[in-house]
Amino acid sequence: MSAAETTTTPATVTLQAEGSVARRQAWSRTSRWILLAATLLGLVVLVILGIDNAIVGIPSLDWDFLSNYPSRFAERAGIRSSILGSVWVLVFTVIFAIPVAVGAAVWMEEFAPQNAILTTVRLNIANLAGVPSIIYGILGLAVFVRLMELGPSILAGALTLALMILPMTVITSVEAINQVAPSIREGSLALGATRWQTVWNHVLPGAMPGILTGTILAVARAAGETAALIMIGAFTFIAFDPALSFGGLLDSFTTLPIQVYNWTIRPQPEFRANAAAGIIVLMIAVIGLNALALVVRDRLRRN
């Protein structure tokens, strides 16, 4: 008998878990399907709400709606003042919040001593990121509107929103700085650069994609904020454009979310179509900001 004839094929061995291992594997497979079902459920609800809102709001969405001021008559009401107010408030929110957030992140990661005080600061920033927005509205009312006597102005609204997005922006900036390889810092310092030169010329450019992404996402959250601005006394009916000057920072204002909220509580059903149209505009703006964050991040990473 030849060697080829005496060679036998080894039997295929199938391992099957038993006991607690089998239960953990079964739970792992089940949890994956549960999470998938929860995700699909949320998407289905979102799509249904979006379609319903589009059916109601698209007929009211035209150029007159975008260029008219609010009115007591639904067919003549528009969102001009709320769009301009939102833009003006968000611009100064970014001016007030982002330099402070990035500076705090750089100090925490590059210059602060690693001790219990820094750990406490990190913990408090993480806690502040989860505080409800209405609490920031109460703080803005007490400090900016009453104590500093700014009134329900664009400046008070921008400062309040800046406080609200500050913890989130600090956290994302810290994470972006952490992603920069330590070898870049070590190489810069080894070549004779100072600590600040290393941070300015190497660490911040490397962290910029993450910092900008977090900034844009924080601004997108601020763009849809209502509760905090209502607390500081933002108006629901503004029939003039905010002045494009520093003096205009003390003008009264409204924003698109507040205008939509005002229309939803009106008893007349005609205003609900206006609210739906305003929601469409707001959703386009927020989705556009999120898309911009993705584009900026990918562009900077490639460069």
Can you characterise this structure?
The chain has 303 residues and is mainly α. The protein has a single domain, classed as MetI-like fold. Helix content is 72%, strand content 0%. α5 crosses α7 and α7 crosses α9. The longest helix has 39 residues. The N terminus is likely disordered.
Key phrases:
single chain; 303 residues; MetI-like fold; mainly alpha; globular; 12 helices
- Portion of residues in beta strands equals under 5%
**How many structural domains can be distinguished in the coordinates?**
1
Low-pLDDT runs of 5+ residues are: 1-5
Global Rg? 27 Å
> What name does the CATH topology carry?
MetI-like fold
* Helix-strand string: HHHHHHHHHHHH
DSSP helical segment count:
12
CATH C-level: Mainly Alpha
The backbone outline, from C-alpha atoms, is: globular
The total count of strands amounts to: 0
Topology of this protein?
Blueprint: H1 3-6, H2 19-57, H3 63-67, H4 80-111, H5 116-129, H6 133-147, H7 154-178, H8 182-190, H9 195-223, H10 227-231, H11 256-264, H12 270-302
Helix pairs in contact: 2-12, 4-7, 4-9, 4-11, 5-7, 6-7, 7-9, 8-9, 9-12, 11-12
Summarize the model shown.
The chain has 303 residues and is mainly α. It contains twelve helices and no strands. The longest helix has 39 residues, at 19-57.
